[in-house]
Amino acid sequence: MYGLSRLSEDTAGYDVISKASACEVLKTAWNSGIRLVDTAPGYGNGVADELIKDIRTEGLAFKVCSKIGLDIQRNEFKSSLQDIYSDVDKIAEIHDGYISRVLIHSPPSELIRDQSSCIKIISYIRRVLGEDVTVGIALRSPNDLADCKWGKKERDFVYQGNFSWLDTRIRKIALDADLRIIARSIYGSGILALLYDAIHCREPRINFNHADIRYSWHIQGILEKASSEVTEFRQECIKNKRASLDELVASLILGENIISGAILGPTTVAELRSTLQAFVSC
Length: 282
Fold this sequence. Notes:
Blueprint: H1 19-31, E1 36-38, H2 47-55, E2 63-68, E3 70-71, E4 76-77, H3 81-95, E5 99-105, H4 109-113, H5 115-129, E6 134-138, E7 157-162, H6 170-177, E8 181-184, H7 191-199, H8 219-224, H9 228-239, H10 245-254, E9 259-262, H11 269-281
Parallel strand pairs: 1-2, 2-5, 5-6, 6-7, 7-8, 8-9
Antiparallel strand pairs: 3-4
């Protein structure tokens, strides 16, 4: 459950959902047929992993797509291979038997270009977690995809990257290299909801407090910029006046040949149901 997702309300960082609410979202996801949860050892300082582990005792045997290498609290990638290997060991301890995918989490461009080191990490993942585990890279920047096209030659290799109405930069690189992407931040970390409200003449809230990660973002500039993505989104809103934000997001994701899957990131049961309904109806 990606903290900001489509949420446009003011928050304290990513602390936007209680344990009880998170459990209800997971139960609804399970009952809706979802079996894979995106997580990482550092999400919520480990709380996310413990939550997934605990809820398995209720029969919700979610498998995980986990990630390694990024110190999320510091937003720094770990510099030594041994520290990265420690993340793999931690995942094995918490999710043994329930691991579907493990991705190198937002590595710096230098590491992505260092194919030899990446292969060492991948080899360690499979040695510890099993040869059938899918591996890949969760990209920090869409432009990094151009430097890791070597992954196409690897077995069961996937890419995860930002893709939304606000950011389609990864499209051209993926098309040129014939690559498929798992889309994340499909609601633009809540900014799409603000833009949707502005287009529909509803006053968007853009004054986030200091504790909100979006406080330092130039939100007004994002809402006003005349980029091709924002222009296209405005035109789509005008053309389909009655379309909900969820339907507009689903239509973009489902209409892209480069997208092989998407992280939904709901923070409430209602949000999850609305998003799923939009994907089904589109």
